[in-house]
Amino acid sequence: MKKTIALLTGGTTGEWVVSVKSAATIAQNLDPERFDVYKIMLTEKGWFYEPADSVKIDVDKNDFSITVNGKKIKFDGVFIAIHGSPGEDGKLQGYFDMIGLPYTTCDALTSSITMNKGYTKAIVDGIKDLNIAKSVQLFKADYKPEEVTENLKLPYFVKPNNGGSSIGMSKVKHTDDLQAALDKAFNEDTQILVEEFVEGREFSVGVFKTKGKIVVLPATEVIPKNEFFDFEAKYTPGATQEITPADMTQEERSRVERVVSAVYQKLNCRGIVRIDYFLEHKTGNFYFIEINTIPGQTATSFIPQQVAAMGIDLKDFYTQVLEETI
User: Fold this and answer.
1) CA-CA distance, 118 to 132, in Å (whole number)?
2) Rounded (10°) CA dihedral 180, 185, 186, 187
3) Taking every annotated instance into account, which residue ranges of this chain make up the domain ATP-grasp (predicted)?
4) CA 41, CA 57: separation in Å to the nearest integer?
5) pLDDT tens string 252-280
């Protein structure tokens, strides 16, 4: 019997554009023989379903249902494709937990913690073979730039603590440029993280669970033409060289799989996540960058590339994710 799935997209942050593109990829690859899919848009103005031949239909938030042509439609589960708030920070997960509706992502606690880069690093610190760049966490209400200059060595990466898609992020090579970078990040968030630069190769790898087993997808090496992997590099075709599967030694591949599986487990993840990391040039050490609990699924995103490199059809992949979580 077919499952009725709500594909939830949009959001209330600058990442909503990416969310809409991700949902388009997912919608094209959900098995129509197994799932009846309704794309639900969430914006600051409301939550609604917009059929091609009709006006917007508001979602009843009491039970997350819609009424189409006099028929009330309730969902068996929700495929959350919202990057940023409220899809990736635990707010929607808490709502769905309260009304008893299953969803495809990490739970509310994991989602809210992992949106904060500083808190996440504190939790994964201690995993064998995982290293963390030295950093300073600043709060907008009470901070001093000297906390950075006195504790960290140049260059720095300055990033919003609760942001995504590299929005508000800067690389600082000179102390004179620090304040402008802090202002840019504080425009996006009240907390920011400033890290020492790790010189190394940058990678991104998808992890998911199927039939109770953690599966690590083939990693992607990221070689941006820009100074670093910023928003433009992430979402502009041709702005970044992306090599999937990444060229790593067997030892590196095995170590990475072991480390990211441990991260997935320690953070109590569900569904598809993406973990970004460096392999330091001089040592080959693994440096954790961040985890994305709702990674992009656009035409230029890593997860579809990695799924293809593993020899899995996207339709089968999304079916496995839905079967595991919903």
Assistant:
1) 11
2) 90
3) 122-323
4) 10
5) 999 999 999 999 999 999 999 999 999 99
Amino acid at 81: A
Domain regions of the chain by residue span: 3-104, 113-131+199-325, 135-196
Burial 212-243 (b: 16+ CB within 10 A, else e): eeebbbbbbbbebeeeebbbebbbeeebbebe
Q: Which segment of 25-34, 71-80, 238-247, 303-312 scores lowest on mean pLDDT?
A: 238-247
- Within 8 A by CB and 6+ apart from 74, the residues are 4, 63, 64, 65
SS3 109: helix
* pLDDT tens-digit readout, 230-248: 455 455 556 678 999 999 9
CA angle (64, 211, 301) in 5-degree steps: 65
Can you tell me whether residue 217 is helix, strand or coil?
A: coil
Q: What DSSP letter does each residue of 149-162 carry, written as one string?
A: HTT-PSSEEEEETT
> Cα–Cα distances in Å, from 25 out to 7, 42, 174?
11, 17, 41
Fold of 113-131+199-325: D-amino Acid Aminotransferase; Chain A, domain 1 (3.30.470)
Tell me, yes or no, if the two domains 3-104 and 135-196 fold the same way.
Answer: no
Report DSSP state, residue 168: T
* Of 273, 318, 236, nearest in space to 27 by CA: 318
How is residue 42 annotated by DSSP? E
What the block records as the tokens of 48 is: 């609604």
What is the Rg, in whole angstroms, of the alpha carbon atoms belonging to the chain?
A: 20
Give the closest residue to 260 by CA, choosing from 289, 234, 283, 280.
289
- Residue holding tokens 């929005």? 167
How far is the C-alpha of 197 from the C-alpha of 153, rounded, in Å?
8
The end-to-end CA distance of the chain, in Å, is 14
Domain 135-196 has CATH 3.30.1490.20: yes
DSSP code of residue 230: -
Positive or negative, the CA dihedral 281, 284, 289, 291 is: positive
Query: Quick one: CATH architecture of 3-104?
Result: 3-Layer(aba) Sandwich (3.40)
